[in-house]
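Could you help me review a protein record that somebody else here produced? Do not assume that whoever made the record got everything right. The record follows directly below this note.
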Amino acid sequence: MSSKTLLYILKRLLLALLTVWVVITLTFFVMHAVPGGPFTSEKAITPAAQAQLEAKYGLDKPLFVQYLTYLKDIVTEFDFGPSLKRRGMDVIDIIADGMETSAQLGLIAAGVALVSGVVLGAVAALRRNKLIDKIIMVITTAFVSMPSFIMGSLLLVIFALKLGVLPANGASENGLILPVITLALYPMAYITRLTRSSMLDVLGQDYIRTAKAKGVSGAKIIFGHALKNSLIPVITYFGPMLAYIVTGSLVVEQIFAVPGIGRAFVSSITGRDYPMIMGTTIILATLVVIMNLVSDIMYKVVDPRITLE
């Protein structure tokens, strides 16, 4: 690895830390600026009891003191604090439990979307303006245009309620099949369109025509040159997409009752669970930043002509 590449990675890591710090700061102060609090919805709670709860969790201190304490706990101990609603549980433990399911769901969905999208996009490009190309484009346009909550609800009604072939509960056996399909359809359709347009552009390049003129086999041209060079925009999209899917789709996990991090995040917002909101937001932001960095490095692997600056 060259010194320029190492310097680039170091710069990106420093920028990543700055980005995560900005996310932490904005989320912390905006969250506390919203009227109300985590204990205002408690039934029959007296002002004295509420004051004791706020003192127990440090919410009675000045806001900036709370902010500095929170930053110190994250940096020195990687401690997101206790959950204010799920008493007796730490935020990091709740996130770890949810991420186990969300990661499994997201990685499978991302893998299905990537493989299916690249294959369908390549087929559409190689059969441009043929019937199969038109069918693929119509289907992918429909999937791109349809929101995930509509697609998830449609799959739930057809396969779980009407046909009864798949479970509706994401926590049951085979319960992740419908959530995986729901999560994979949109990115699969988008990757298909990216691959098709990029591959059509590559197939029109001079070096492809030169390779054909030299008698290079069609399979080597497609897999050794055209497909490899057409994956750069797919890599650009895939990194952040993977972070988003792995973190968990809020809507999809709610529809199928998947016990993942997305569902826990929604509950924390409605319950004003400050530490849980902060913890999940930080994890999401960190994953997105890391996957963006990995995507940039993968450019160099796919196309050595690209220079990292």
The chain has a mean pLDDT of 81. DSSP finds 13 helices and no strands in the chain.
